[in-house]
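Below is how a single chain appears once it has passed through the pipeline. First comes the sequence as given, then the structure the pipeline wrote out for it. We keep one example in the README because the format questions we get most often are answered faster by looking than by reading.
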Amino acid sequence: MKVVVTNYNVKWERMFREEAEKIKNVFVYELIEIHHIGSTSVPGLKAKPVIDIMPVVKDIEKIDLFNEQMTGLGYECMGEFGIKGRRYFRKGGDNRTHQVHVFQVDNKEDINRHLAVRDYLRTHAEEANLYAYLKENLAKQFPKDIVSYNNGKDAFVKELERKALNWYVK
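Resulting structure:
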C-alpha cells in the first residue's frame, strides 16, 4: 500500500457524513451513535486521505450478521483484525478510502481512546502540528511501506493517547 499524507481536505467531513448514512442504513437498530475519528476528523491536520468511522453499537456479536450488507457497500470484512471486541471493515483495497471500527457501547476503553485523541488534537494545535510533521516525514521515508510508516508513528501515538486520555473528560 502506497503511503500518502496530504493537506487537510474540507471534503473529508462530507465524505464521512455520506458514508455514515450508508452505514446507519446497514446497522439500523444496533447502532447507538457514529463518530468521525482519526486524522481526517481533525480540521487542518495533514493525513492519509482515509476516512475513519467509528459506529458504537448495542451488541458487537450481531455486527457479523451485517457482513454481506457491508460487502455490498464495497467493504472487506476483517473481523476483529487485531483488536479484541472490534469489528473492522475497510474499503478501497490498496487505494483505501474508508475504515470502519465498530465497538460495543460498553467498550469504553477503545471508544474513549479514539474520541480523546480526536478531541485532543482538535484543541491542541501544537500536538497536531508535531503529529503532522511526523506523518509527513515518515511518508517520505517509507512511501511504499505502510508497516514501517505505522511502526514509526507507534511511540508518538502511544504517548499522544496517554496525554489525550489524561486530558479527556466524558
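The first helix runs from residue 11 to 27.

See the next section for the split statistics.
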